[in-house]
Structure formats: C-alpha cells, structure tokens
Amino acid sequence: MDEYIVALDQGTTSSRAVLFDQKGNLVAKCQREFAQIYPKPGWVEHDPRQILSSQMQALRGVLEESGVSISSVAAIGVANQRETVLVWDRYTGRPIYNAIVWQCRRTADYCEKIKQRHEKFVYERTGLNIDAYFSASKLKWILDNVPFARERAEKGELLFGTVDSYLIWHLTGSKVHATDYTNASRTMLFNIHTLKWDEELCRLFNIPMSMLPEVKPSGADYGKTRREILGESVRICAAVGDQQGALYGQLCFRPGDVKNTYGTGCFLLMNTGRKAVVSQNGLVTTLTAALEIPDYALEGSVFVGGAVVQWLRDGLGLVAAASETEALANSVSDTCGVVLVPAFVGLGAPHWDSDCRGVLSGITRGTTRAHIVRAALESIAFQTFDVVNAMEQDLRIPIDRLCVDGGASVNNFLMQFQADILGAEVVRQAVSETTALGAAYLAGQVCGLYGDLEEKRKKRQEQKFSVRKCQMRNGQRSCVHGRRLYIVLCTRFGSVCGVLFQT
Fold it and tell me: Which domains does the chain have, with CATH numbers?
C-alpha cells in the first residue's frame, strides 16, 4: 500500500497542507487564507483561532481533494512562521490575546532601550540582534499588558509557544507542549550553544520558565493527533521553522550552501556546519534542522519581499494579480530611474533600522506603472544582494550559487535579475513548496518512509538562471550596490545624501 506524508505549512498569510508520496513527489496541496489584523500602525496580529481552523481545514481538504485515505498517511510534519508569539490557557487551550506576528514592531522602543546595555550578552547567547522581530519582547508585552496575564503565568496557568507548539498542543489534545531547536533559536530566550532555554535571558525579559515548551530535534516524536480530528490517529514526526524547513528541503546540508525564500519577506540562510560564525555585517547566527544535533547557519532576514507585490496589488491597485508583474517588468528596458526601497516596517538585515521608512524616488512625468512594478521587483533583488554581500564579507568567500524557493521565485524576471546583479547562478527547484518538502523529509526520515536524501539530490529537477555576461560586469555590480546604499541613506538622512552619493 502506498504511504504518504502530510506537511502542514502554517505561514504568515495562509495555512497550507501539502501531500507528498513515497518518492517525495508533491501529490496535492490545499490552502486557506486568514485575516491580517493591524490594530495600530506597525502592529500586526493574527487570531489564533483562525490559525488553527484554517490549518485544520487545509489538512482535511488536502486528503479530501486527493482522495487519499488517512490510513495511508505515515506521518505529519509541521512547518511554521517563526517568531510569532502565542499565549494560551494550559487547561482550556484558549488564547489570552491575539498572536503577535513576527512583523509587528510594537516593542521596538523597548528593544532599543535594552540594546544599550545587553546587546553583546544577548548576541553571545542567542546569535541574534536585539530586535522586535524576535519573540522575547513580544511575549513580555503580552504578560505586561493583558490583564492578570503575568500573575497567571507565574502560577503556571499559561503556556507560551511559537505557532508549531500551538498547533501540536491542539493536534495532540493538549498532551504535547513542545517545539524544535530551530523555532526555539528565534525566540531570543534560547542558548544556541548549550541548546537549552537560558535562565539569565528569561530573567532579562521577565519570562517565567514554566511557560516554555520542551525543545526537541526538528525530526522527532511529537506525539499523535487526536482520533477525532481525522478519524484515526497519525504520528507527528517533525516540527521546523519555515526557513530552516526550506533549507532542509533544498538539501543544503553542506557548509557554504545558501538558499533564499522569497515569501512575504526574504530569508537567506547559509549552512556553516558545526561552526557558529559570528557576523560582523549585520547577520544573525541560528540553527539548522536536523534529526539529532543541529548545525549552525548565518541568516539575513528582509522584512518586505513578496509583500511589496501585495502592496502593488492591494495598496496601489497597479496590478490585479501578482502574475501580471513579470510581463509588466519585461515590457520596459529599465526602471527609467525609478527606485523603490520598501522599508514599510523598517529595514532588516544587514541594516537593522526600525525607524527607516519606504521611499519611492526618481519619478518623472514619463514614469508608468510598468516602471514602478519593475522597481518593486528589483527592490526584492537589491535587498537580497545586501544580505548575500554581507555573507560574502563574513565568510570571505564568493557565493556563486543561490538556491531559491517561495511564491515570488516563480517570477522569471526577478530570478534572472537576481542572477545578473549577484553575478551568481540562481537555481530553482521544480517543487516550489520547499518549506513543506523540508518538513516532509524530516517526518519521512523519522517514520522510516524516506532513506538517504542524497539520492533525491541527484534526481531532483532544477531550472537554472545563469548570469548574462552582457548584463553583468564587476563595475556594474559595484554601481548597483552603491545605488542601493544611496537610497538606504536617503531614507535615514534626507536629501543631504544626494550631495555625497550621486548616481
């Protein structure tokens, strides 16, 4: 009898369930969107009940639409948006507040205050820069601002988790409160060297340790689903942060392997093996997915990647669908001087400027929507360039190959432009659901459905975007980067930069 793996891919804007067969081929997928909540400028929330219900709908939907019986499912793997914080009642499972999303900037001022005294200490323990992006300050905010939350937490009545923990807790009928190394490493409460929750960090952020989940390898036993959910119990054999899941799905197991996921944001990870590289260029150190002891990785997070296309569609009305952007970008030879910096919620790596805001510059009477659309797509590539350049400086080696995935990676214009400005080959797998594939690989290895993944590396189908020599020379690469820096500086210091950085 054929056996399958279901990967739950709980993302920032939707919940998906993806079905893979014994060979790791994608059989079917089901997606359910849910509401984005913006209570104040810079604040981003999700309703935890919608996260759970949309994920359950997607899980049931993928089985119904594929016609695969639950008895044929060997295991479930969970991948999730990282850093997003949920707090719920240990006894009822009810959330005490909305999930505070990784994009939310409400704790930026607090983070700036503690950065002045504790930046080195936090980085040495966690590999992370102190920023509102990570979980710790969001959790502290809930405890400090929801009535009776801190009192209840100190009594042991409340549980904290990233989205994986929340889903697993509900899937198992409250029997398992756990997370994996990759998600724990993004909380700013976890010591990536000892692989344990750090008591001093918890004291710094005033977090009761009784709230924290058990931490396991990404591929491990996470219990079984309640029989009532699907009619039969199914093993949960993996939990992994979405970006580490994508790194695993890309089979980036060797030091120096790099991937970029073009999702709502852009997330670049480079496997650095057993060495925890200390970045001097604005990157963070994190953990990779593994069946046992994880390796280390350098990571650079771009806050607004594919979300800029959503802005073009929903905010400006320049396109009716994301698929229109490729043809529009190709309809003009360049942006005609238009440059967009989509710093809508500040800038992530390598700049880490929470006060920076977006800029659209170079507009003339001759500017058309095609120029703006092309500038928006180029902005994704420019931000990726900044992170790749930082990685090259930290490792002192050139990066000549970038593995890509995520929704925006289907845009051929973007991928070719990315290859040209990087001066590196961009490689896109035939299976676009790489995050889900990583969760499936992990779960499949634990339950015995998948063996040696090196064989899958040899057989996978890829599309390669090579550097167009006529489009890319060393001088042009420097010019592109200089222009990018000019725009970033303009967002911070105003027109005075125009005197210093004419392009």
Answer: 4-242 (3.30.420.40), 257-304+387-471 (3.30.420.40), 307-343+351-377+473-500 (3.30.420.40)
